[in-house]
């Protein structure tokens, strides 16, 4: 039996789901599942029990997401900071993850699990990868851009989350998807994660829908600005090339245009080969890591 798929929505839940689905829906939702230990304290149960119920709540939430047509979910399962917790708690969380991960992998939905993750580490790693590309001669310094950084992040295969939800009343991102959520709707809810309900999820989606046009507008104008900046960088690159060739006249606009087209195509080619080299470098790293831990 499937862990996520078992159980359907009640009639009233289905009815409300259909109403919500008539509006714009988030395609990708990220969760900071917070409040497991407070829940355990509140219910006078062991801390591990709180985490275990948190794991089960994730399965239930994924089912609601599937029912609502949300095909991609990203969760903050364990931050690098969490390693500072007691050994007993970290070992308990690792055990739970080992048990549940294998079940999650059997499922067909798109779940990204951020484990031993922090966003600043991810961003600085992406910057290091680009510096490596320049050092290796795979990239020109002018190829370094926000859009290339996007492609160097661990999340490069996913669209940015439309909606980020944090439970337990904490109103901070705790170093989670800082780059990817600049145009996401952020919803902070006071409910503790193991008590999260279908209605809490609906409320978060309604808040996304209320802010939808402002979010879209901000995202569109950012993309437009990004295209403009890229064009400026390409023009500066061409001007530098022409200067190096000794062409100083601004009159030959046709030549300038042809060169601009050529430079853009060459940049795309450089970026593709850099990304391929990066993929090999990462695959090598993981192979070495697995052979060390085997
Ligand atoms: C935050 O509550 C929760 C965690 C540190 C662990 C979160 C992970 C899960 C619920 C399951 C994810 C599992 C997989 C396999 C994807 P807290 O411990 O910070 O509680 P508190 O805020 O009340 O102290
Ligand atoms: Mg917490």
How would you characterize the overall build of this protein?
The protein is α/β, with parallel strands linked by helices and 294 residues long. The chain has 2 domains: 11-210, Undecaprenyl pyrophosphate synthetase (3-Layer(aba) Sandwich), CATH 3.40.1180; 231-293. The chain contains 9 helices and 5 strands; from the N terminus they run αβααβαβααββααα. The chain has helices at 11-20, 36-42, 47-67, 87-106, 119-135, 146-152, 198-210, 212-244, 253-293, and strands spanning 28-32, 72-79, 110-117, 163-166, 185-188. Helix 4 (87-106) links the parallel strand 2 (72-79) and strand 3. The protein is globular, with a radius of gyration of 23 Å. Farnesyl diphosphate is lined by residues 33-38, 51, 54-55, 58, 75, 77, 82, 97, 100-101, 104, 113, 168.
Number of strands: 5
Strand order of the largest sheet: 3-2-1-4-5
Reading off the top of the CATH hierarchy, the class of the largest domain is best stated as Alpha Beta
Task: Please tell me what the overall shape is.
Answer: globular
What's the short version?
The chain has 294 residues and is of the alpha/beta class. It has helices at 11-20, 36-42, 47-67, 87-106, 119-135, 146-152, 198-210, 212-244, 253-293, and strands spanning 28-32, 72-79, 110-117, 163-166, 185-188. It has two domains: 11-210, 3-Layer(aba) Sandwich (Undecaprenyl pyrophosphate synthetase), CATH 3.40.1180; 231-293.
